[in-house]
Amino acid sequence: GSRTRRSSSLHQHNSAISRQFFDLDESEKSKVAMSSEYPYGYEKAEILSQSLTGEGVIPDPKETYNIKVSDPRWPEQPDQFKDIVTKYCDEMWTLTRRILRVFALVLRQSEDFFTDKFPTDNMTVFRQLNYPHVPAGPARIRASQHTDYGVLTILATDKVGGLQVRLPGEEWEDVVSPPGCLIVNIGDMMQRWSNNAWRSTLHRVVKKETQANTDNRRQSMAFFVNPGKDVLIECIPDYQQAGEEAKYPPIRSEDYILSKHYSTVPSLVAAGGKD
Hints:
The structure is a single chain. This protein is α+β, with helices and mostly antiparallel strands. 27% of the residues lie in helices and 21% in strands. The chain contains six helices and twelve strands. The longest helix has 26 residues, at 81-106. The N and C termini lie far apart (50 Å).
């Protein structure tokens, strides 16, 4: 219908404006660099596996631009960046609200269970990712294995591929996303709320050897749905057995998200962004 066509058009425009941003000179992109004062913006030194295992010293070979949706900061270039990204995020919020209502019902809660957990100044982040072309050679990791920290993630990718999820049997499975489709990941907070009934999606991005002789530059867009900073993430009573403790202690949303985020960007810690 018309919404599908509009969403597809927004995706195309957003992908194009994202590509224009990442094609800018490094000096221009660095004007909106991630900092301890605003731990979003542009970065290219993230080590995602640090958030999961504490391992890894070589940055993932990618670059990102991150916007806190409730407190966006915009690059000067390219033109129309703010307008296009704002429209895309509005569309993602419309979809998110529908997904959260379904999630609440499946969790055997009232349909509005998540409503008060997302105040206007919530911590949702929109991330644009660019994986530069990798020269011919063996397969390699482009984004190290990790889970997402929040409630859920809505991901749009291009046709290059490379996203893999870890199956229960320790196997990595390719994720195939047909054109125009979106991928939804469960995040850590949903796992904690459900006391492990719902599992956060362990995933990574790889460059396969079969891509070596073609242009394998990859772009994706992730809408990380995160609650308000003061929301307490604790086991839903229905998912806790009588007489047993919850598998995770309660934790404040902002404390959990930022502790994970800072662990992946050593420069933020060095700058004093983490106590």
